[in-house]
Design brief:
mainly alpha
Amino acid sequence: MMGPAHSLSGAAAWLGVGAAAAAAGHTMPWPVLVVGALITAGAALAPDLDHKSATISRAFGPVSKALCEIVDKLSYSVYKATKGPGDPRRTGGHRTLTHTWLWAVLIGAGCSLAAVTGGRWAVLAILFVHLVLAVEGLLWRAARVSSDVLVWLLGATSAWILAGVLDKPGQGSGWLFTEPGQEYLWLGLPIVLGALVHCVGDALTVSGCPILWPIPLGRKRWYPLGPPKFMRFRAGSWVEIKVLMPAFMILGGVGAAAALNVI
């Protein structure tokens, strides 16, 4: 799928988690709901860091472009080293390592560890990166005609404000993990969710997605999971734009209302 659809699906997924938490009697503080939705929207773009034309590869200028080159080469190297006898030859690393459940878990765990051990500046860095990506994904039309600097300033300002809100007692820094020293440990959860939602979205397209790697399926270790081929669509097609994106918006709105006990 394209970036906007990935971000919308990510935000809708976290709002759905908020609705489920409210139904179970553990309502999220509103800052956790909002920040989590924005982080998930940003994290849902992150697996495409292995593709030079992707939104995330252009979002941070030369830094993200250089990181894209590294991730692409790393992904390709892992693919060559681990492919099964039924896996095809490839010339690049797109839709390999970063499009797996293992990558999602490792990235989420790494961000949680950084948030717990790195203090406020690590939290701000995590928020900044994902809020910039959320702007690029959710407000793609405005972001495309704006300068990168304006998007970065918006991301930095939003990160500073939202971190200040979360720091207030009862507003969410200690949500879910309540022991001393576990503040912001939950930040890894929307990052894992965003990456997994991205993979599920790509699995719906014609190429499928090797979500289960390194678990082998038959002769393939990089098996491109997806529904039956007649149910798949091409990225950027009318199905994505006219059907899925409006559906994600509606589901997100319903999830937000349920999470806040409005309905």
